[in-house]
Amino acid sequence: MAEGRTKVSLGTLFEKMGNGEPITMLTCYDYPTAYFMEQAGLDILLVGDSLGMTILGYDTTLPVTMDIMIAHAQAVRRGSPSAWLVGDMPYMSYQPSIETAIRSAGRFMAEASCDSIKLEGGVEVADRAYAIASMGIPVMGHLGLTPQSATALGGFRVQGRSAAQAKKIIGDAKALEDAGVFAILLEMVPARVCKTIHERSSVPIISLGSGPDADGQLLIFHDMFGLYPKFTPRMARVYGDAGQVILDGLKQYVEDVTSRDFPQRENWFTMRNSAFKELTELLE
Ligand code: KIV
Questions:
Q1: What DSSP designation does 155 have?
Q2: How many angstroms separate the CA atoms of 116 and 102, rounded?
Q3: Beta strands of the chain (E only): which ranges?
Q4: CB-based contacts of 58, cutoff 8 Å, min separation 6
Q5: Is 35 helix (H, G, I), strand (E, B) or coil?
Q6: Phi then psi for 251, rounded to 5 degrees?
Q7: What's the pLDDT score for residue 155?
Q8: Closest among 217, 154, 219, 163 to 193, alpha carbons compared
Q9: What does the alpha-carbon distance between residue 101 and residue 103 come to, in Å, rounded to a whole number?
Q10: Ligand 1 atom closest to the CA of 208, numbered from 1
């Protein structure tokens, strides 16, 4: 655990909400990044199935399995013992039945020491959310642009721009809250819709591209640091171009090896003369 940090709990998150203190949340998929996020003091880390796109290079999140998610969640927990860890339920890990949903959620808790899980959808998954929460597993809801349904939603685009769509999302938020979720993530809904849900909600609302009137903010790590080569969404704020730093370094490495500038004396290891003499004799 990073110095000065204490474990983030549900109490911490609700206290922040009560005090009007913004909750900080980022996606995280691996040990070193989790380590840095632990040092930086992030409240919530989401092991998102977006790793299917950002880490594995698929065009959608659909190919991601529970086994893949568990391996990444375990790595993130090793890097950040104190953040509130959310395991993202991948495609078909909760849709088929309530039992499937409880078993998948349980795996995040038992095998990866997650604190909670997240699932996509509103009214249609409220029974899953209720069942999982009833088993003592905190559930985060996810509304608006829900990537597992991107095809049905017309692609990766803003959701809830029409009054009818917005009313549906507001109803979904109420259904999730009634089902016992501890928080709701709103992805790419108009800021006014987010504000309306925030005003009506008694659980923390986290905004991803949904404006400032929420209890917390989420970004996708790879978007913040130029690490997703296909595109950077408008909603992201870019904090550095790590992708360019890495590319420059890789080009330099190719040049250094090609020109025999690498390795230098400090990059290799020696052997005592006596041992080398002995080896030479052994080889004769
Ligand atoms: O998988 C993920 O990272 C997510 C975010 C896009 C909210 O679900």
A1: S
A2: 12
A3: 23-27, 44-47, 84-88, 116-120, 139-144, 183-187, 205-208, 216-219
A4: 52, 64
A5: helix
A6: -65, -40
A7: 86
A8: 163
A9: 6
A10: 7
Distance of CA 246 from the midpoint of ligand 1 (Å)? 24
Catalytic residue numbers, as ranges:
187
How far apart (Å, rounded) are the C-alpha atoms in residues 231 and 173? 29
Provide the 3-class DSSP secondary structure of residue 156: coil
Cα–ligand 1 centroid distance for 185 (angstroms): 9
Nearest residue (CA) to ligand 1, atom 2: 48
Average pLDDT, the chain: 97
DSSP three-state, residue 107: helix
Q: Model confidence over 54-86: pLDDT tens digits? A: 999 999 999 999 999 999 999 999 999 999 999
**How high is the pLDDT of residue 154?**
86
Q: How far, in Å, CA of 107 to CA of 111, rounded?
A: 5
Q: Which of 194, 180, 186 is nearest to 137 (CA)?
A: 180
Identity at 223, one-letter amino acid code: D
Residue type, 150: A
Show the 3-state SS of 165-211.
HHHHHHHHHHHHHHHCCCEEEEECCCHHHHHHHHHHCCCCEEEECCC
Q: Which of 220, 222, 224 to mutate to test the pocket of ligand 1 (most atoms within 8 A of CB)?
A: 220
Report the C-alpha gap between 156 and 134 in whole angstroms. 32
How much distance in Å is there from the Cα of 270 to the middle of ligand 1? Answer: 49
Name the closest-CA residue to atom 3, ligand 1: 48
7 burial via Cβ count (<10 Å: 0-12, 13-18, 19+): exposed
Indicate if ligand 1 lies below 6 Å from the C-beta of 208.
yes
Nearest to 157 by CA among 121, 190, 195: 190
The pTM assigned to this predicted structure is 0.96
